[in-house]
Amino acid sequence: MFLGPLMLDIAGTTLTETDRVQLSHPLVGGVILFARNYESPAQLSELTASIHALRSPPLLIAVDQEGGRVQRFRDGFTRLPPMRTLGEIQDRNPDLSLHLARQIGYVLAAELKACGVDVSFTPVLDLDYEQSSVIGDRAFYREPQVVAELAHALMSGLQSVGMVAVGKHFPGHGAIQADTHVETAIDSRNYTDIEKKDLIPFRRMIDTGLSGIMAAHVIYPAIDPNPAGFSSKWLQDILRNELGFRGCIFSDDLCMQAARNYGSITRRAEQALQAGCNMVLICNDPDSADELLTSLQWEFSAVDTARLEHMRGQQTVHSMAQLHEMERFIRATEEISRISLANISVSV
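Given the sequence above, the corresponding structure tokens read:
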């Protein structure tokens, strides 16, 4: 059995029979978890074990665990600062900011892996133009070279415990105010302006081994009338052919408002997959998930399967309790805690 192209969510902290039926469907390849799915590290470990036991090969389990206001698992996990904190430290001490980015990546991945989560959709590669209502302090910095350096350091931390990185939101979400969760987002810049700034972190990360990329639901009308995640121009011509990306492309959530203008959930999934996405996300809309499972016709290739399998990374042998006794982990969490206390408090 192969991993399918759909990533779904679940309702609660344990699997229901409905969840089990949905996740066993051959079109499904992954599960994304949210704060509602979390109570404690022990509960999370039981949940991920039950998800992995459903299928062979096991479903891919993902989460948005960036830090700051986008940290789904909190109690029992290390509180991670927003990435803008690293950019502000970079202004004073570049070497320290890179060190702390690696430490955050290590702790983030070590805790998730210890609880059976395969991948976090991080780092954010959007630039901080001080424009976006949804990106904001999720972005590292305003300068693309600094974003690339900090993101690479965080990726190194993730990789040190066997987790791959997923850069988002290609080709860049930071220059507009609109929030694609609730409204249509249009970036009217031409390709040259985007290429010389926003694409730099993506290009640099691709060149150093980035495994996954999530596409934005933003429309860039000077390049293509469709949002980037529905655009073969962006995903095939630019991302695959020009930038040379060979990893896994994820859509953003197809149930977000910015995607709803593009037909039924089946049509949206078809457009995203045809444009070049390897896996599409359907979140917080169980009726759409049911509709898609009964109507989508899609033949998954061996290349798609290999790309998704690579996103699993390496499995850890440490439990959360063992992790908390490791000197490296203790030192890293102490350093991260000092960031939050001495510089900028973690957003809630």
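The chain has 13 helices and twelve strands. Try to locate this feature in the token string yourself.
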